[in-house]
Structures are given as structure tokens and as C-alpha cells.
Amino acid sequence: MKALQRCFSFWWILAIAIAIYPQSSPAEVPDSALGYGTSNLQLNDFLSASELYEKGNSLVEKGKYAKALIAYEAAIALDANYYYAWWGKGFVLQELGRDLEAIAAYQRATEINASDAKLWFAQGYLFYQTQQYHQAIVAYDRAVAIKPDYGIAWYNRGISFRQLKQYAAAIESYDRALAIDPNDAEFWYSRGNVLVMLDRYNEAIIAYQRTVEIEPEHVLAWHRQGMMLHGMGYYATAIAAYQRALEINTEYTYIWQHLGEAFYHQEQYTEAIAALDRVVAAKGNDVNLWIYRGDAFYYLAEYERAIADYNRAVEMDPRNVDLWIYRGNALGKLEEYPEAIESYERAIEIDQHSAFAWFNHAITLSRLGKYHEAINSYDKGLAIDPDNTQAIEQRQRTLILKEREYRRRIISNNTSKFRLVPIN
Fold first, then answer.
1. Collapsed DSSP state (helix, strand, coil) of residue 421
2. Distances (CA, A) of 349 to 69, 311, 315, 327, 400
3. Which of 104, 192, 401, 413 has the CA that lies 20 to 30 A from 395?
4. Cβ contact 369:402 at 8 Å
5. Is the pLDDT of residue 133 over 80?
6. 122 pLDDT higher than 80
7. Spatial separation of the C-alpha atoms in residues 376 and 363, rounded to whole Å
């Protein structure tokens, strides 16, 4: 969006000197042009539409858009076909937030002079800003038909296609823009973003690399490059990209979170926690943040801290089956088996088809010596995942333990029946 904004400054509007174009003949400003309640503009001091236009430009430079509008409208009152005044009027209306009126002014300018590519560009820009993407593309098409090497018009055309999710057409437009200006970082960055939407990740990485070669401080390109590498499993290089982004700006909390997640996948749990702590301090309203940090604490055997993070996560997402299972696992590590069983049972309540919940439930019941119930849970899980060899083996061990317990009880009972009584 930065390229869109930078291309439409006031100085750009004044790119073509007034002297190049035929001027209206000097004439007195009619009384109707003075009836705007702006005597302080001294409109009667101006004798021509071009002078009024120049006054409007001067006022725009000072940021006095309302007064500039009066000057442009006075110029139009003198010469209704003075299309630069219509163009100036469109610009200040846009700055004043009166977009529909601005579009009408630009359209009038192109009706008067349809051969000026910049006028079509200005119209396309405002159509884009008002989310009229089809109309924006039509206007940009007119601009590039007049001026085929109009790189920023090709770029904005591509952005409009992107908003319509016509990604192949967007890439085509970006490529035309880059053929004209291959050293525009924003062109490469936007091209990379659309390549991601097309699942062309390797090409997207190249586009982001090209972006940072041109503009080394482009934080978002470093971040996006990291995300692509992260998603492809190249965690070490993703970490380097995230860290480069954070060297430029440490305030992007979502980059700290992605850095933490990459450290986690790299099994660098201490570093993961340090990065995620930065996010917790800033916001902490993303459930994934608490899950990743909880998991990192779990793998560092800091089970109480893991449980605290899982508790925070289930408050935010109480229907998350996996969360209840993770919480149960941490409780089990602390040998808090009844609480662990409750956690697994919450998971089962949410999804009775979670084999993992049933298996963990069974393991914990077995640790409490509840072998019959444990076997029942194994059976429920194996009905869902019958090929889980680990669960099959654990069920067999539980059967053996159950049989041993049964025999121990029989022996114990029989011994008590035939216990010798001491003779006094």
C-alpha cells in the first residue's frame, strides 16, 4: 500500500507544468464564483482560470484543502473545460474524504481529456480506495494503453486483481511493472505475497529475498521470508530471517511469536520461551501462544508452569481437545493422576472419537491400579485406531497386571481363611 500512497502526492499532480497546456483567455470572475463564503481568498483578484488553479495548488501545498476546493471550483466556473481544475478538485475532495464526489470530478476530467494517462491513474486509484476494483482495473487499463511503460499503474492494476482474488492476472501485472522498474522493492514484495496465495512458495521466497536486497530494512519482507522457510521446515534459516526483522523493529509482537514457534520446532525450548515471553508481556491474547509456551515448559520438565499455560489456553479455547490432553499429560508427569483423568475425560466429552484421549485415559487409570477400567478405555481407543501398536502392547501389559492383581487377591483371601490361630 505504501507504493499506492507515495505515487499520489500533490507534487505528482503538478508533474506537468501549466504552461504546456493552452490556457483559457483572461476573464473576470463571475459573481457566482464569489458566492462561496470565502472573501478571505480574494477571488476577485484573479483574472483567469489558470491563476485560480495555481492559487488552489498553493493552498494544497499548505494543506488548506477546503480553500483550495473553492479556488478550483472558481476556475471551473470560468472555464468548465479546464480539466486540470477538475483534477485538482478531485484531489482535494479525496483529501477531504468526499470520495464519490472526487470520482465524479476525475471522470469529468477524463471526459474532457481522455489522452492523459495520469488522469486515468488518479481515477483508478480512487476506485481502488473505495473498493471498486473492477472499475479501478478499467481505469488502469486506460492508463497503460496510453502509457505502456507506466510501472506504477501496472502495479496498482495488479493490486486490484489481487483484491478480486484473480492471482494469475495480478502476477502478470506485477511482472509488467517489474519489467519497467526491476528495482522497486514494493513491487517484489507484493508479487511474493500473491505467489504465496498461489502456493508457489519457492518463488515467493525469491521475491522476498529480492525485496530485502533492494530495501534491506524491509521488515515485512524479512518476516514473510521467515514464514515461508518456517512452513517448509527450514527452521534455522527462518529463525535468522525473523531475527533480522526484529533487529530492524523490535515492536512487532507477531514476529516474536513466530520466532518462538520456530525455536520450538527447532527444539530450542529455552529460546522459544524467551521469545514468547515478549509476546505475553505485550498482549497474550492468542491461544497458540500459550500452547507453544506450555509445550516448551513441558519438554523442559517444568510441568507446573506448563499446566499454568495450558489452564490459560483452555480458558480461551475450552473446546480444544488436544489442549485438555496436553494438560492431562503434564498432570500425569506430576503424578496427579485423578486430575489428569479429569482432563482426559473433558477431552472425551468434547470428542468421543479421539483415540489419543482414550489411550492416555487408559494409561493413567492403569497407574492408579484401575486395570478393568483401563482396558475398557484401551478398547474404546482401539475401536477408533485399531492399528496403534503401542496401544495394543500397553493393553497387553495392563491385562497381565490385571491378572497378577486378581491372583494376588485370591491368594490373599485364601491365606486369611486358613490363618493359624495361636494357642494360649
1. coil
2. 66, 17, 16, 15, 29
3. 413
4. no
5. yes
6. yes
7. 11
Angstrom distance (rounded) from CA 23 to CA 382:
88
Which residue reads 490385571 in cell numbers?
402
pLDDT in tens, 222-238: 999 999 999 999 999 99
Per-residue pLDDT at 273: 98
Q: On the CB side of 90, how many CA atoms lie within 13 Å of its CA?
A: 29
Residues 243 and 37: their CA atoms lie apart, in Å, by: 58
Distance of CA 206 to the CA centre of its chain: 20
Average pLDDT, the chain: 87
Concatenating the DSSP letter of every residue in 127-172 gives HHHTT-HHHHHHHHHHHHHH-TT-HHHHHHHHHHHHHTT-HHHHHH
Rounded to whole angstroms, the Cα distance separating 183 from 272 reads 36
Considering only residues 217 and 33, tell me which one the structure prediction assigns the higher pLDDT: 217
pLDDT confidence of 2, banded at 50, 70, 90? Answer: very low
pLDDT digits 0-9 by tens, 8-35: 333 333 332 222 233 332 233 333 333 3
CA 82 centroid distance within chain: 44
To which H or E segment does residue 183 belong? none
- Phi/psi at 234 (nearest 5 deg)? -95, 75
Number of H helices, E strands in the chain: 24, 0
pLDDT confidence of residue 17:
26
Instruction: With H, G, I as helix, E, B as strand and everything else as coil, classify residue 257.
Output: helix
**d(C-alpha 345, C-alpha 361), whole Å:** 7
In the structure, what pLDDT confidence band is assigned to residue 409 with cuts at 50, 70 and 90? low
Cell of 21: 497546456
Q: Identify which has the larger pLDDT, 45 or 39.
A: 45
Span between the terminal Cα atoms of the chain, in Å:
102
Q: For residues 312 and 324, give the distance between their C-alpha atoms in angstroms, rounded to a whole number.
A: 11
pLDDT value of residue 283: 76
Could you tell me the maximum CA-CA distance found in the chain, to the nearest angstrom?
141
| H/E segment holding residue 229 | helix 219-231
pLDDT digits (tens, 9 = 90+) for 62-100: 999 999 999 999 999 999 999 899 999 999 999 999 999
